[in-house]
Structures are given as C-alpha cells and as structure tokens.
C-alpha cells in the first residue's frame, strides 16, 4: 500500500476523532469530575465499548496473536481472567463506586489517599501506576509505528507512525476529556470488533475449508500440542496459568484507567452490566485472534516474528480498500487504550502531585470553583508531557510488546490490589502498613523478575510470591501500628451498610 493512500486515510480518520473531541468539549463543564469521569453519566452500551476498547490494543493484535502462534490455546487463560474480574467488580467495585460518588473521588489513588488518610499511600500507588502504565502507553505508539511501517513497506517510517498516534490522541483528549474518550472508543471499539471478525473469516476461508479443517491442518503439521493445554511450550503450565489468572483478574480491577470507568458508571446497573459483558467481549476477540494465529501456523510455519503475523497475513489476502480499513482498526485499537491511560494518569498527577505543591506555595486555599478549574487545567497540561514519556518508551524501550505487558504493567499494578482490597473490606488496615506492603512487594517482584534473587519459583510468576509477602506485611504491619481514627474509617464503611428497614406502624 502506498504511503500517500495511507496518509490520506489517516488524515480522514484523525479528523473524525478530533471532531468527536470537539463535540465532547462542547458538553463539558470545566470541572475535573467532568473532564476525567464525564460527570459520572456513563451508560451501558458506551460502557461496554469503552471498557473493551481500553483493554484491547496493540497487545491484542500483536502480542496475543503471537502468544497463540507460539504457545497455543493456553493463552485462552486471558478470557478466564476477565470472567474472574466480574465478581470482584460486582462486590468490591460496588463499594468503590459508592464511596467515589459520595465524596467526589475521581481516581483510584485519590481513593487510597482518602481511605487511609495519608498522602503517602496515594503517592506511592501513583508512582507505581505511572511507572507501569507509561511503558504500556508506549507499547500502543510502538504498535502504531510498526503497523504503518509494515503495510507501507517503509513508506511511513516507524517514528512517524508512532508520533502520529501520539499527536492525535493528545488533541482529542485535551479537547473533550472523558466524553471524547468514550465517543471515540465507541467508534474505535466497534471498528475493532467488526474488522477483526471479518479478517478472521477471510483468512480462514482463503487458506482452508473452514474452522474444523484449519485445526486438522494444524495437527497434520505436527502442531497438535498447540490445540491443548499447556500448549506448544512450557509457558502455560499449571503454576503459570494460575499465576496469570490471579494477576490479570486483580490487575484488571485495579488498573486506574479501568477504575475510571467503574467510577464513571451512571448507576449500579451499569456497573453490573460491565462485570457481565467484559468476559463476553473478551471471548469474541480471543476467538478471532486464536483462529488468525492458527492460520499463521499453517501458512507461515516457524515465523521468527510471531508478533507481526497478523498485519503480514492480512496484507496478503485482503483487497486494498478492506486492508485500509483493517489497518485503521489496528490504529484505532492502539489509540483507544492510549487515550484512557493518558487521561487517568493526568488526573493522578494533577491531584496527587501538582495540586498539593501549588497549594503549599500559595499558602491559602482557592475557592472550590477556582480549584476545580486549576485542577482541570493542570490535567490538560500534563497530557502532552505524559504522552512524550510514552513516545520515549516506544523509541528506546523493550522491543517486545508482550514483554512490556507481562513483565511490567500488570504485575506492578496487581501488587497494589491487596492495599486497595484491604481499604474496602478491613477497617484495621493502616497507612504505614499499606505503604510498606506496596514498596516491599514491588521490590521483591523486581528482584525476582530480574534474577537478582536466584530463588527457584517452580513455574510461578514472580509477582505471586511478592504478593504473598506483601499481604503478610500488610496484615502484620496493620496489627502492629496504631489503628486509623474510627470516625474517619466509618465515613467509608457506613456507606456499605444496608438501609434500615422501617418498622411498620401498628
């Protein structure tokens, strides 16, 4: 495909997204709650698309397809993780949704600061999330650059494809905030589902006589191990499967960009709908990716770059007009994840870092209205700065997208989950114990992951023993330190108590 044709299509697509950003800006009220959460008016259908579009990205098209190609059906464990997050979201998500609505909380680090009555808890959690998610955002820019470079045979260089996505995301998120993100996610998410299904059908029926015949051909090539657990390698043995299930389910709930959606839900009914629909949407995407990967196994055996098989295969079989739309779907998927990350991180930086420093320098508090406007302005200013950090990762970070996700992002955020869950369910949990737990568990994880602690793990992911130690530190530390003030803790826990049933008058 010529670079000129691709640039024209990208310009039209970018214009649509920026226009949606402008529409989002027209309905805004210039408050941080509106900019970050859309005034908490997220309904069911937009919620489905914005949650799945946020979750699936370059990681899906490249990383998961490569995992299926290399390791087989064991990668289906990801579907189970989204099913497992359903009960967590239904119960724990309900609690954080109630507290956030009551006290005007706009992100998960603000919740932790408020619950533990300690800036240190929110600061530490925020640092971990920023360190984990900026590389993840960089993976989206990398996915855009790789895709556009591949389909244009170098006509659009890698750096230009990455910068293009970064600039477009910055423009429409700065313009309309959460409303723009949701509206673009509906477009980008719908495009992702339709084009992924179309690409899977065309690839399967171009190279085989159908889905059953495709699996028979995989077996005929001596790759039957890919069709059963643990798959074609040792990666998806039982300890690792359990590790991935626990890590991803807990991290899905804790991720600040997904917490943003839990808090933005218009009603508890919307929250329950998200809990049910997330695994359904995941299963649909993984079904397509699995069969696309199996086509790759049959037609491109021994490919040295499994993460690149999806764009390589669709370039061979799709007509030019459909290939163009399919490429836009990939770019849309990367953008729909990057936009959510940068928006929620901008609110974390504004609330947890910049605003307290500015307040201290002023020496006096602003009126609520002026402070809200200042916070919103700060969040907007932080957007291009955070995006620039993601671009640095895209240009100078790890080359493997799947490595960024599995090695850094999800495990690091997962280790915040015990502190978050304790805050929601255990009155005795204390700030010193929470801070120590997060720091100790992250250091242990980093040491195990990098091989600095040469301890045999027996197939378990390094984050699992780190989490166990973190939970022990949290429990023991809370019991050994002064309990939090009862009146402060009850601000939260009294909200979870059922309404008393009125006594009928005789």
The coarse silhouette is globular
Q: Give the low-confidence spans.
A: none
Tell me the radius of gyration.
23 Å
In CATH, the homologous superfamily goes by the name Sodium/glucose cotransporter
Broad structural category: mainly alpha
What is the makeup of the main sheet? none
What does this protein look like?
This protein is mainly α and 506 residues long. It has a single domain, classed as Sodium/glucose cotransporter (Up-down Bundle), CATH 1.20.1730.10. Helix content is 77%, strand content 0%. The protein has helices at residues 3-26, 32-37, 44-55, 58-71, 77-103, 108-116, 119-151, 158-207, 211-220, 238-254, 256-264, 268-299, 309-317, 320-362, 368-396, 401-414, 417-425, 431-449, 463-480, 486-493. α3 packs across α14 (320-362) and α7 (119-151) crosses α15. The radius of gyration is 23 Å and the shape is globular. It is a multi-pass membrane protein.
Brief rundown of the structure:
By secondary structure, this protein is mostly helical.
Question: What's the layout of helices and strands?
Answer:
Blueprint: H1 3-26, H2 32-37, H3 44-55, H4 58-71, H5 77-103, H6 108-116, H7 119-151, H8 158-207, H9 211-220, H10 238-254, H11 256-264, H12 268-299, H13 309-317, H14 320-362, H15 368-396, H16 401-414, H17 417-425, H18 431-449, H19 463-480, H20 486-493
Helix pairs in contact: 1-8, 3-8, 3-12, 3-14, 4-12, 5-10, 5-11, 5-12, 6-7, 7-8, 7-14, 7-15, 7-16, 7-18, 8-12, 8-14, 8-15, 9-12, 10-16, 11-14, 14-15, 18-19
